């Protein structure tokens, strides 16, 4: 695999773009060698879904698009980020029992930590922000082929 891979897609800031962002990330992970049925792939798709949803819901129409960026460095670290042009940085809201939203970043931070990664929020030069996660790249090893069974149902040595 290459030392450095990058992928990016810009989508309209519309709820219909959230599944498109998730599918794009899944396709790129598969292209880079991460099978779709792994826990890491599921986690990355969930994180992107949350980040894209936040970019659509919390920019109040002031960011016409959002961009999903992916970077894989030396088969060691994967960074996935969502950038929008709205200047307000996300804030962690106090958890309340009746609260229907505001838990997305808490969930993302927890998911990233569970995978050995971290969440970052950075302002962009253009006045927007990028919310990203950096995770260890861990492609599961393929299982070795098993020896064929003998007629008696035992494996040959």
TrEMBL record:
Q: Name one Pfam family in it.
A: HATPase_c_2
Report the leader peptide range: none
Query: Which keywords describe this protein according to UniProt?
Result: Kinase, Serine/threonine-protein kinase, Transferase
One MF term in GO for this entry?
Answer: protein serine/threonine kinase activity
In its UniProt entry, the species of origin is given as Streptomyces griseomycini
Which InterPro entries does the protein's record reference? Anti-sigma-factor_SerPK, HATPase_C_sf, HATPase_dom
From what superkingdom does this record's organism come? Bacteria
Protein name (Swiss-Prot/TrEMBL): Anti-sigma regulatory factor (Ser/Thr protein kinase)
Alphabetized SUPFAM superfamilies for the sequence:
ATPase domain of HSP90 chaperone/DNA topoisomerase II/histidine kinase
Q: Which PANTHER family match?
A: ANTI-SIGMA-F FACTOR RSBW, ANTI-SIGMA-F FACTOR RSBW-RELATED
Name all Histidine kinase/HSP90-like ATPase domain ranges. Answer: 11-132
């Amino acid at each position: 695999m290459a030392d450095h891979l990058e992928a990016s897609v810009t989508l309209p800031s519309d709820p219909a773009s959230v599944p498109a962002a998730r599918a794009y990330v899944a396709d790129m992970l598969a292209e880079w060698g991460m099978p779709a049925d792994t826990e890491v792939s599921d986690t990355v798709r969930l994180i992107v879904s949350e980040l894209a949803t936040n970019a659509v819901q919390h920019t109040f129409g002031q960011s016409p698009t959002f961009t999903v960026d992916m970077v894989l460095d030396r088969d060691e670290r994967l960074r996935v980020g969502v950038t929008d042009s709205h200047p307000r940085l996300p804030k962690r809201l106090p958890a309340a029992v009746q609260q229907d939203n505001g838990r997305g970043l808490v969930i993302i931070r927890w998911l990233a930590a569970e995978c050995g990664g971290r969440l970052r929020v950075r302002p962009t030069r253009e006045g927007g922000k990028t919310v990203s996660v950096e995770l260890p790249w861990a492609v599961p090893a393929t299982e070795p082929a098993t020896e064929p069974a003998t007629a008696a149902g035992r494996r040959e040595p």
